[in-house]
Automatic annotation (TrEMBL):
SUPFAM superfamilies for the chain: Nucleotide cyclase (SSF55073)
SMART domains: GGDEF
Record-given protein name: Diguanylate cyclase
Pfam family, one: GGDEF
GO molecular function, one term: diguanylate cyclase activity
One cellular component (GO) term of this entry: plasma membrane
């Protein structure tokens, strides 16, 4: 369907409120609510994800996806005490991006499968499982590329507004193809899972996150972290990976990885620019390593 405009929204708000438990406009980049009251649109300082009783950005943000894909989307989302069906519709504006969210409480009316579950508890668990299936890599349980595309732009905006650094780290497992070819894909999977577990054990997941970006590539976003501190974290991860071999049926396999870091501090960068620059630094480090015969 074609995008609707803010003027069209004003004319429909009263009607929407009759059908839904909550109606709100969201700025998906800045994570702010553009409040709708009495058919008026008021810019507020309210953080959109606080509605769900959480203090962190939604892992699978439907408004960000709706804005990026330029189409209406529907998902289930859970608060502390209820489950909602959320419809997100992109809105045409001349200023900041906007998405209309229509929220319907379906805690006691939504049935999944046989419908045999205890009120909101089982349904909330189901919503969480569905969300994780969308944004997490099934092998490592790290976030996936879709999550990166939705979350990194929001973290960049937040870091820019708060005037704090953001370090993006691009990690690549060395000789991954050789591991697969020599020892089989089972050993390759074990190597990927081992590296993932080491990454997670070395970062603060309350403010930072890690994702499997490709076959043997990982991204780590360190919010509020300057390059010198990011270097310490990456060197620790690199050292831990080197000290923890994996085992095939006959041999132990020594692992190593190469990383690159790009820190955004004074000059804002887009998500694509950050990833490209971190990848470039990683590639140069890998070339240097191989040139001097290091593993």
């Amino acid at each position: 369907m074609d995008r609707i405009t803010l003027n069209e929204i004003k004319d429909k708000l009263d009607f929407f409120h009759k059908m839904f438990d909550a109606v709100r406009l969201i700025d998906p980049l800045h994570k702010k609510v553009i409040e709708c009251q009495d058919s008026d649109i008021l810019i507020t300082k309210e953080v959109c994800y606080h509605y769900w009783g959480d203090k962190k950005i939604c892992d699978n943000c439907i408004s960000m996806r709706s804005y990026q894909e330029d189409k209406s989307l529907v998902k289930m989302e859970k608060s502390q005490n209820a489950v909602f069906l959320v419809t997100a519709i992109p809105i045409t504006t001349n200023e900041s991006p906007a998405v209309l969210e229509l929220l319907k409480n379906v805690t006691d009316t939504m049935f999944v499968g046989s419908g045999e579950y205890n009120k909101s508890e089982m349904l909330s668990r189901y919503v969480e499982e569905i969300s994780n299936a969308i944004i997490k890599d099934p092998l490592t349980l790290l976030f996936n590329r879709r999550f990166v595309e939705e979350r990194l732009p929001a973290d960049i905006v937040e870091s820019t507004l708060a005037n704090r650094p953001l370090s993006l780290c691009f990690l690549d497992l060395d000789n991954f193809k050789a591991i697969n070819d020599t020892y089989g894909h089972g050993a390759g999977d074990k190597a990927i899972k081992t590296v993932s577990e080491i990454i997670i054990s070395n970062i603060d997941c309350d403010k930072s996150w890690a994702a499997r970006y490709g076959g043997d590539e990982f991204l780590v976003c360190l919010n509020g972290t300057r390059e010198e501190d990011a270097q310490l974290i990456m060197k620790k991860i690199q050292r831990d990976v080197g000290n923890l071999p994996i085992y095939s049926e006959k041999d132990s396999i020594k692992l190593s990885l190469t990383y690159g870091i790009k820190t955004m501090e004074d000059i804002p960068l887009t998500a694509a620019e950050l990833i490209r620059e971190a990848d470039k630094v990683m590639y140069l480090a890998k070339q240097f390593k191989y040139h001097y015969g290091q593993n």
